[in-house]
From TrEMBL:
Coiled coil: none annotated. SUPFAM superfamilies: Soluble quinoprotein glucose dehydrogenase (SSF50952). It comes from Podospora pseudopauciseta. Residues 1-24 form the signal peptide. It holds the Pfam family TrAA12. This is Pyrroloquinoline quinone-dependent pyranose dehydrogenase beta-propeller domain-containing protein. The keyword Nucleotide-binding does not apply. Residues 37-419 form the Pyrroloquinoline quinone-dependent pyranose dehydrogenase beta-propeller domain. Keywords: Signal.
Amino acid sequence: MGHIINTVASVAALTALFVPEVAAQSCPGVNSRFQPRMGSGYRFSLLATGLRQPRHITIDSAGNLLVAEGGSQSVRRLVLQDQGNIVCVQSNTQLSGTNTNHGIALSADGRTLFTSNLASVNAYSYDPATGQVGSGRQIVNGMSNTGTHPTRAIATSKWSPDTILVARGSQNNIDTTTTQTSSGRSMIKTFSISAGTQSTINYNTGGEVLGWGLRNIVGLTEDPAYGGIWSVENQMDDLRLNGRDIHNNNPAERLSYHGVLNATTNRYKGLNYGYPSCVPAWDPQNVGINGLVVGSLFKPDSVPNANDCANRMTGRLHFHAHTAPLDVKFTANGTAAYIAFHGSWNRNPADGYRVMRVDFRNGDPVADVSSTTAQIPVMENSNVGGCPNNCFRPVGLAFDAKGRLYVSSDTTGEIYVIYGA
């Protein structure tokens, strides 16, 4: 029973760090359905409502918020304006001709807009001053598949400006064909932007594998201070080991490191992270294998044969099972990464539905790889028992030039702003 006591203590410690936000402001005509609990030192305001499944978001060089709307399959541009000590929307328009169900990114110079959908990554010329976009061009295609995980996380690099990163998840919970890189799934690849604008690149046959054995990467980012590439991963559901159901607290979600793109040598490039044969432990005692710690890889039931889990790469940090991290973004000085946890469907009681902070030092998390307390509370639903149907569900994150953190909630069609990040 020791692991249960530790889990309860961990939850109690997190709860103690939250404080109720009783005087949050909202922009004119914007009414909040929920009253989040805020971590110490943070406050929030509600920026916008009525969006259609807002997913990933980004801030352009003129300070406008661009939103990938999964419900409309297009990009929405919110022109922002400071009003006292909060930020509000001055105008709200849809960028015609754009095509996305999840991913959005801007080039290093801010003049090219990239979007992603099930099948492709598209590029558009973009004017941040006017919001005008040119006609789209596919730069990467060949990513369609049946089954689950239709999102394609994308990210661009300031350290390697001609590179775009594209993640493609598995096509079902246990995708046995992803034991080979030729499957083109459960991996992150890098592509040359300039090459893609000249001739569309097929995802399966082009680009370079940055990391594979990654079940479903939904968030990718670059540390602006140190150049490292980081990803957040949604791990396997309905886990069983030797016929025993261990899915409620295993496997761990994880934050993984993939090196610096423009480094002379990158020892992380091309590493295998284990999926589908090996998954990381969150509650080692519940797994019941001697010697496991948080993050240790092990082989569950119904996966392809694996004799080398100890030789696969695992995450740099690990998180509660099924909390579904969907995005990660760094502060400008690289001292913290913020993670949006969309929340569980494969767990009872529900968990996640929050934004958390992980502290960094010199390009690396402060916490040890096996830590269960690396997450610091930022913003959480006041009543997680009402989730997933009656709460906000964080998806996308973006910082503006003033250090304000924007958070999208797809199921409620909202954008929040967090101050104090």
